[in-house]
Design a protein that fits this description.
Elements: E1 4-10, E2 13-18, H1 21-33, H2 39-69, E3 74-80, E4 83-88, H3 95-125, H4 130-150, H5 158-171, H6 174-202, H7 209-235, E5 255-258
Parallel strand pairs: 2-3
Antiparallel strand pairs: 1-2, 3-4, 4-5
Helix pairs in contact: 1-2, 2-3, 2-4, 3-4, 3-5, 5-6, 6-7
């Protein structure tokens, strides 16, 4: 049984969805409804969750379209439990290209947030239901969170790639830049794990084991990218091999842009 379902092509880019998306969709739906079996409420929540998943896809498409405009071929995009991954078939060609590709995702998320805020204002002005206004507000808020979280300067997050591009531009040493950004990513991932495990025990609000799971993901991908950066620094560009939607602990890998 295949773990991913191919949805088709958008702008010539293959798009697939991993079965684990059902988990995050169900969790979000349950959280937004508090598990209440209300038909009117679910009639708004279900489309809201689908639009949220479309927002994740738009974030990855922004990365991918800008990557192709900078001469990189995009293998595909996969949505999964912790967001999305755009798979590029070659390393970044320059510091400038890395900056533009990395910044495109958060920029799209903020643009979507602005659209949803405008939608909320319009729905309110036109006398739309409170549920509809709340749905627009939540979509705007979650896209701000998505864009802001990804700007944290820790690889493999977009902010980590922006940090690496800046160091690369200044030092002219790509390996040094990648190693620094991925080490920051490891530290950030470890911090998320610690906060996610200890936070609920001491009653810290908005911190759950989900935070720890995100930390595991960040730490694992950062470790993989650190190994690859060191291999490239020592031996030069390494032939790329196919990757999976989940972080592959064995280097080398194609460039992946998770969100």
């Amino acid at each position: 049984m295949r773990s991913t379902l191919r949805l088709g092509r958008i702008f010539g880019i293959n798009v697939a969805v991993h079965w684990s998306v059902l988990v995050i969709a169900g969790l979000i739906g349950f959280t937004l409804t508090d598990g209440v079996a209300d038909a009117e409420l679910w009639a708004v929540v279900i489309p809201t969750v689908l639009v949220f998943l479309a927002s994740l896809l738009a974030h990855e498409l922004a990365h991918s379209v800008v990557a192709e405009r900078n001469g990189l071929r995009v293998r595909g995009i996969t949505l999964w439990l912790l967001g999305g991954v755009a798979q590029l078939e070659a390393p970044m060609p320059s510091a400038g290209a890395e900056f533009r590709i990395a910044a495109a995702g958060p920029a799209m998320s903020y643009a979507l947030a602005g659209m949803f805020f405008a939608g909320s204002a319009a729905a309110h002005a036109l006398g739309g239901s409170a549920l509809l206004v709340s749905a627009f507000d939540w979509l705007a808020f979650i896209n701000v969170v998505l864009g802001t979280f990804n700007l944290i300067p820790a690889a493999p997050l977009d902010g980590g790639r922006i940090l690496a591009s800046a160091i690369w531009a200044v030092t002219k040493d790509r390996t040094r830049a990648d190693v620094f950004a991925t080490r920051v990513g490891q530290a950030f991932g470890a911090a998320l794990i610690a906060v996610g495990v200890l936070g609920p025990l001491v009653g810290v609000r908005y911190v759950t084991l989900w935070t720890a799971l995100m930390g595991v993901f960040v730490f694992r991908v950062a470790t993989t990218e650190l190994r690859y950066a060191r291999a490239v620094g020592r031996f030069g560009p390494v032939p790329l091999i196919p990757s999976t939607t989940a972080p592959n602990p064995t280097a080398p890998n194609p460039v992946e842009i998770p969100s």
